[in-house]
Amino acid sequence: MRIFVTGGTGLLGNNILRLLTESSHELVSFVRSHPHDNESIKAVFEGIETSFAHGDLGDAAFVDQAISQCDAVIHSAGMIHLGWTKLDEAMSVNRDVTRVIVDACIKHKVPLVHIGTVDTLAVGSRKQVADEETPLDHAGGQIECTYVTSKRAGVQEVLNGVERTLQCVIVHPGFMLGPWDWKPSSGRMIVEVSKAWRPIAPSGGASVCDSRDVAAGTISAMQHLMNGSIPNGRQYILAGENWTYFELWRNFAKRNSQRGPIMPAGPAQRWIAQMYGDMASKFSGTENDINSAAVKMSSQFHWHSSKRAHDELGYRIRDPHESIEASIQWLSEHGYLAR
């Protein structure tokens, strides 16, 4: 089977490609810069058996040509910005590119696996985790920042496609850790916590999962979609164990011989962080990683249940400690982290 994969330089996409390489599938990876012309991109795809489609995902003719020659598409590319700015750019990537891919998949009758995020679904709470059916306003609802808004718009394009005969499944990863985090994405949190003492951790929590397990769950979703054993347009949470950020940061720090946080942020600390971040962004002209949207999101409990994926896809999760150690080891080996 010939599979077109976007987002192959990202944490999940790279793990998907590596897992698919172990099978007999023929892979086509989308790249903006061809690996032959870019040493850093070449390193990202080392060990992966794939051909490359070099172009622009916003180019409908390019996407149409690439998908017309494939039997399935896994769309993992996306833009992550946890803030209030860059909405137009994020919409272009997360919504408009998705629409182009959906159109090509419908035209050529090619099944689509769309990678969403739990941040497009309901947020959980300390008392009740969220699943695929939890009302969106549960526990106050998601923070309608650039990332949430644009990714929800992308998911809606896929659901609109279902009404137009698109064959698809949507998977929503939780907070992923693991190897092959080239940018890095989630691993950046480990790097930052390991650089210096962070006395105060975010007050919320996340559903910690392994990028290798999410990759396996994504491939399982594709297989179940193509053999007709799940409903078309079905959505699945691929998450893990629900931890507070305080627990997570203390674990990161301990494994890197760093002093861990002493407390989660309280209302006063959160207010100060929001005001400082937004004021600094205003004066610099560029939104900082610390801003009111990011602080508010990190104060929520993004705790989710993966029971549907467990029951219907055979999704399994490993101990988060194993994922943390694998992530730290990979980051260390590739120069992101000193140990």
TrEMBL record:
Q: Which SUPFAM superfamilies match?
A: NAD(P)-binding Rossmann-fold domains
Q: Which UniProt keywords apply?
A: Isomerase
Query: GO CC annotation: what is one?
Result: cytoplasm
Keyword Ribosomal protein recorded: no
- Highest taxon of the lineage: Bacteria
Molecular function terms in GO for this entry?
aldehyde dehydrogenase (NAD+) activity; isomerase activity
Q: Which InterPro entries match?
A: Epimerase_deHydtase (IPR001509), NAD(P)-bd_dom_sf (IPR036291), NAD(P)-dependent_oxidoreduct (IPR051783)
Pfam short name (any one): Epimerase
Q: Which residues form the signal peptide?
A: none
Give the NAD-dependent epimerase/dehydratase domain ranges.
3-226
Q: Which PANTHER family match?
A: NAD(P)-BINDING DOMAIN-CONTAINING PROTEIN-RELATED (PTHR48079:SF6), PROTEIN YEEZ (PTHR48079)
Q: What is this protein called?
A: 3 beta-hydroxysteroid dehydrogenase/Delta 5-->4-isomerase
From which source organism is this entry? Rubripirellula amarantea
